[in-house]
Every structure is written in structure tokens, then in C-alpha cells.
């Protein structure tokens, strides 16, 4: 009885249930994530509040409810900034960027992707910065913004080499030919 009245435990348990639905049943996952968020708001635990904002925002993004997603994600971002939670700040910046990108607001998405990269760099999260630089390189390449594409693709190629040195050959080895081909494409077109 006492545990079910505890907002922290209600929030934590509801979040576990929301995650158990995963991407299979997004509507159910959203209901539980929202329950988790409501319970978390009555707790004194800022970290729980942040992860529930992030969960509700991420699920709404997957459901293409981008405006709602952005409200929750920005609340999570602001709170993570307030308590100096760099890990969640990085993840949420990335989620905000994805919401704007999927909403076809490329300029705003870019601002948030850069924010995510800066936060991941503070954490030395090379896999994340590699993934984002490669994605940005492709986004700029697809928009024929050759110089910007080159900047990010070269960074991604350098980060890929560091990942190799750390023993991360498996997943990343397949990406090298594509990155090199994209660099060549951007380089050959950079003056057009």
C-alpha cells in the first residue's frame, strides 16, 4: 500500500511498463509514459522527471505528434540543463533535433543536432558523435550543401578511425565505403 502511494515508485514502475511495450504498441506505451510523467512530477526526483519527459517526447515523435513531443522534450532539456545532467541533455537534444527534422524544420533540427554533438563530445561519446556527424553529412549532401557535408563527413571518417582503434570494427566497418564515397561526391561538387 505504501509503495503504490509513493510518486517516485509509481513513476518508475509506470516507466518500466511503458518501455515494455517498446515500439510494438506505441499507444499503450504512451499511456504508461504519461502516467509515469504525472507521478514523477509529484516526486522530488529530477532525474525521474527528465527521463519521463524524454519518454513521452520520444513516443510522441514516433507517433508523429511532433508539437506535443517538443513540449515534453524541451521541458526535459530545460530540467537537465538546470541540474547539469549532460547525458540526458545530449540525448534530449538529439530527440528534439529528430522531432524538428521529421517535422520538416531542417534549420531548427540542425541547431539541435549541433547541441547534441557538443554535449556528446563533453561525454566523450564517440559512437554518438560519429553517428550524428555521418547523419549531418548525409543531410547536407542530400541538400547539395557540399562544403557543410564535407565538414561532417570528414569528422565522421576520422571518428570512424578512432572507433576502429578502440576495437569497434564490426558494425562500423560496413559504413566506411559509403562515407568515403560521400566524401568524394561532396568534394567533387564543392565548387558547384
List keywords for this structure.
192 residues; elongated; mainly alpha
What does this structure look like?
This protein has helices at 7-21, 26-41, 46-62, 66-82, 86-102, 106-122, 126-142, 146-165, 170-173, 176-189. It is an all-alpha fold and 192 residues long. Helix 4 (66-82) runs antiparallel to helix 5 and helix 7 packs antiparallel against helix 8 (146-165). The mean pLDDT is 89.
Layout of strands and helices, then pairs:
Elements lengths: L6 H15 L4 H16 L4 H17 L3 H17 L3 H17 L3 H17 L3 H17 L3 H20 L4 H4 L2 H14 L3
Query: Biggest β-sheet, characterized?
Result: none
Termini Cα gap: 69 Å
Give the SSE string. HHHHHHHHHH
Strand content: under 5%
Tell the overall outline.
elongated
Which structural category fits the helices and strands? mainly alpha
Mean model confidence by pLDDT: 89
Please tally the helical runs, counting DSSP H or I stretches of 4 or more residues. 10
Helix content: over 70%
Low-confidence stretches: none
Number of strands: 0
Our Rg estimate from Cα atoms comes to 19 Å
Could you give a quick summary of the protein structure above?
It contains ten helices and no strands.
